[in-house]
Amino acid sequence: MSTDRLAGETPPGQEAAPATAEARTPDDAAGPGGAEAPESAEAPEGAEAPGEGATGREEGAEAAASGAEADAVGSGEETGTPSTGAESVTPASGADAASPGAANGSPAPGSETGTPSSGAETAAPASGAAAAHPGAAKANPPSGSAKATADALAAAVRAVESGERSAASFFNEAPRPARPAAPAAQPAKGGPQGGSQAGPTGPGPEVTRQRTAQETGGPARPDGPAGGATGPAATAPAATGPAPAPRPAVRALPGVEGVRQVLAAGGAPETLAEQTAEVLGERAAEALSEDPWLLLGVPGVRPEQADGFARALLGPACGPGDERRALAMVGWLLEQAALAGHSALEAAALRAALAQRSVPDPDDALQAAIADGAVLVFQDAIDEPGGRARPATGDDEEEQPVRVLLGLDRFAMAEESVADGLARLLNTFEAVAEPTQDTAPAEDGEATADGPGSGETTAVGEAADESTAAGDTQVTDGDTPGESPATTAPTADTPATGAPADHAPAPHPARPSATAWEAVAAAAPSPSAAELIRAAAHSGLVAHTGAEAARTEPAALIAAARSLGLRAFGATHTENGRRRLAAHLTDIAADVTAAGSPDPAAAAVTVSGLLSGREGPGRDADGALALDLLVVLDAPQLDLETAALLVESLTDGTRLVLSGDPGVLWSAGPGRLFADLLAARFCPQVASRTPDFGPIGELVSGIGIGELSQVEAPGKEVVIVPVRDAGEAVHRAVQLVADSVPRAFGVPADHTQVITVGHGGAAGTRALNAALKERLNPGPGRFGGFDPGDRVAYAPAPGRTVPGTVTGADAAGLHLDCDGSALVVPREQVGTGAVRHGWALTAHQAAGTRWPAAVVVLPGDATGGLTRAWVYTAFSLGERHLSVVQGADQALARAVAEVPVKERTTRLRSLLQQSVQSGEEPTAAD
Fold first, then answer.
1. Partners of 376 in the beta sheet?
2. N or C: the chain end with fewer CB closer than 10 Å?
3. Average pLDDT over residues 663-669
4. If you ran DSSP here, which 8-state letter would residue 738 be given?
5. 239 in helix, strand or coil?
6. Which residue has better confidence, 130 or 409?
7. CA 468 distance to own-chain centroid
8. Cis bond leading into 505, ω under 30°?
9. Across the chain, what does the average pLDDT equal?
């Protein structure tokens, strides 16, 4: 055994956490003490923690943040304080409000919150001539009303969090109407002005909300409508005052050229023009000139860069209290939290993050963002000590404790879509007919009809639940309400919803009987596989857990279902995983022949290929996937948006099995779908009893329960290589890949994968890839830094990594060979960082893929990125050999024993539990 004691120091790039001390993913290394890693001038590949300065987002975030990885936009300092020259002007009576900018009846978005404040902005304009300064009269009344509203909302949020006030009363109060352009940052037509500020107090005066009603005629964000204000807002001029804010000297041109012009005027690199135009839409130039902080919506742009850009465009009147800045900052912080895995943030964490970003009044900023519709508010029940949310009772006067969460609408919609879709699959599932001996003993002659069309009633659903509860299968109350008893169900007369005739050989869904299901379960290759088959027979949704060896069980289920005439497919996260599943299906085919499919491996697809239509059965006339049973392997890698799209693509009555190893890292995107599903106990759960054998399997199994111990490795399957520093770690890793592993195990260098904690640092992926290229494929990097023969990792979408090898390049882009498939990456994607060298990857990038040999590098400067889940994932990637370059010393053992995972703030678990409770209520009433 060559498993020396795992000692050393710590790894480089690390997963940094957001303000909530939650999900951190090791991508870019955070500097010591939580400071942001100075990765040259690149924009961070990971998410910046919304409350901490350090946040390197690991793997999946690099694609999301890859757009603007080069130049710093503007200066790196925070915005200066606003100019005091634009103080409020008290209007003379009789000539103060005739202009649109005055305190008239229109609910102009010039209020503090961006929506009309109730009662404060409805004063009729005074009779007489219009004021000479249109924006002057708007200062005092709207400012006081908006401030009062902001204070009221902030107090309400604090009251709910502290338990002093009823959550129901807070959420039942009618909110102030939000403008339709919710997701958009509304630009102020006149630029920032100080007309609504009565006078500075303290060292730095705050510039209050500076949008005028005229902005409603301006551009909206891509997702929102173009208008929204009422009254004469469309013609309101910019507010006037002693010191009007500077504006760009040249009117912006339309299209990308206009964006390039505005960027140049603000000192930003013009290379961002195309990406900015894509993010902000066809009126991007006008929107950006009105609201420079919209630049924060471009991936890779940081707040200090956007502040410098705004200062260059707007002049000294722009400051940290600008309401447009606060609104953009709220959205940016939530986007960064999403890169770190959160689907929402607690209100207190977001307030702290805003304060850290120099927003003078975080409560007011949150209130404005909520009123503007850019942020949604949720109340999430706090779990009881037992782990489940306390069910709400109608006659209980005591309010259930809740936490207030804030999130972006697209993640909230995705999370709710997943919860609704999973509940739909459970509730629309038609239970199979049970054998006749399980029915009521009365009137035996009627109870002994053959097949599923015999008219069996409620006893069938009860028997189905009892069958699902066998062994380790755990049936919760959530699966019962939707299982309707199997009445007469002749398959020839009940076609699948929308299934066209050309989807032969199964134009109508097969309805195997309980006897048929039991027969294939009895023939399963293992007891755990038989248990999974029985669970899938009696429930529309099943969760299956197990490690690598347990992947044979979903394969057995797919083969069994296809032998019964069902359209069954298995979807994996990666192409490598698809090939492993196809191999299992081929091995099983000798014993279980897949009906109607001469090639059993055709049932193995990737999730991306299935959704795009490149692989699998395609879609029916209604757009649903034309299948009867779908098994998703690598379920922990499903992010919320992909899961929502997948569940929405399944028609009513389809069986869905989510299978995966609960010990591995969660998805690179926001959410923790598989963990939330298991914690909610929403559906039957089958825990595999098939262990992973061998020294690597034994080591990984121990890590899974928090124990890092030595294992016997007579064939040097596991080798520990102690190192003193990061430089030595890089040297030893290159030596292992290039010499030691090929000589000792016959595994070539291109079949050995190096894994490290993050991209940055002295032993991150960048440093390791540079050293490995120099040794294995030296070259000048003729094609955007790449040469033919380079191993690369291509990220076509956030959270997806496709390994490949460079074969050449031309005007079309970089040519890759990805597992035998030719792929061309467009030149613009190569320039934005979608392609990286791939000899060394992070654990998130490598999740779902296995190699004959793996070299895991744990340098001493990245202990902050180590968790049990990270170590479990990285150590399980080698099939035949694992080398651990250990410089983390005792931090490795501590991480395995004490840091199971970097937590994430999500809502899916509570949504699923609420669905279960709502399904139980009618039964309780009976």
1. 407
2. C
3. 94
4. I
5. coil
6. 409
7. 32
8. yes
9. 73
The residue type found at 427 is: N
Rounded mean pLDDT of 246-261? 69
Q: How far apart are CA 97 and CA 90, in angstroms?
A: 11
Q: Please, which residues bridge with residue 625 across strands?
A: 619
State the CB neighbour count (10 A cutoff) for residue 779.
15
Residue 221 to residue 255: CA distance in whole angstroms: 15
Burial of 16 (0-12, 13-18, 19+ CB in 10 A): buried
Sign of CA dihedral 274, 275, 279, 285: negative
Which tokens in the block code for residue 689? 């009893």
Tokens encoding 286 = 């006008």
Between the CA atoms of 145, 323, 331 and 765, what dihedral angle is there, to the nearest 10 degrees? -150
In eight-state DSSP terms, residue 739 is I
What is the gyration radius of the CA atoms in the chain, in angstroms? Answer: 30
Is residue 306 a contact partner of residue 340, using CB atoms and an 8 Å limit?
no
C-alpha to C-alpha distance for 290 and 191, rounded to whole angstroms? 6
In the chain, what's the furthest Cα-to-Cα distance?
Answer: 97
Chain centre distance of CA 383: 23
Q: Which two tokens stand for residue 756?
A: 């490290």
Average pLDDT over residues 164-187: 44
User: 380 pairs with which residues across the strands?
Assistant: 403
Residue 750's identity, in one-letter code, is D
What is the C-alpha to C-alpha distance for residues 625 and 106, in angstroms, rounded to an integer?
Answer: 50
Mean pLDDT of 531-549: 96
Strand runs labelled E in 326-460: 345-346, 376-381, 402-407
Alpha-carbon distance 672 to 573, whole Å? 15
Q: With H, G, I as helix, E, B as strand and everything else as coil, classify residue 338.
A: helix
User: Is the pLDDT reported for residue 555 higher than 80?
Assistant: yes
pLDDT of residue 668 exceeding 70: yes
State both tokens at 675. Answer: 């963990």
Contact between 342 and 20 (Cβ < 8 Å)? yes
What H or E segment, with its residue span, contains residue 814?
strand 813-818
Contact 418, 640 (CB under 8 A): yes
| pLDDT at site 831 | 79
Checking DSSP bridges between strand 629-632 and strand 568-572, what pairing results, if any? parallel
pLDDT at 880 over 50: yes
| The total number of residues written for the chain in this structure | 926
C-alpha–C-alpha distance, residues 305 and 5, integer Å: 46
Chain position carrying tokens 């999430």? 380
Spell out the SS3 assignment of 890-919.
HHHHHHHHHCCCCCCCCCHHHHHHHHHHHH
Quick one: 590 exposed, middle or buried, by C-beta within 10 A (0-12, 13-18, 19+)?
A: exposed
∠ CA 268-64-15 to the nearest 5 degrees?
A: 105
Strands (E), 28-159: none
Beta bridge partners of 484: 430
8 Å CB contact between 24 and 902: yes
Strand positions, DSSP E, 582-681: 604-606, 629-632, 655-660
- Single out the residue of 857, 896, 835 nearest to residue 14, CA to CA: 857
Please give the helix or strand (H or E) that residue 752 lies within, else none: strand 752-756
Dihedral, CA of residue 757, residue 759, residue 763 and residue 768, to nearest 10: 110
The token duo for 299 is 């991936």
Residue 464's pLDDT band, with cuts at 50, 70 and 90, is very low
- In this predicted model, what pLDDT tens digit does every residue of 789-837 receive, in sequence order? 999 999 998 778 999 999 999 999 999 999 888 999 998 888 788 999 9
pLDDT value, residue 142: 42
* Partner residues linked to 430 by β-bridges: 484
State the pLDDT confidence band at 162, using cuts at 50, 70 and 90. Answer: low
**Which of 66-70, 246-250, 594-598, 614-618 has maximum average pLDDT?**
614-618
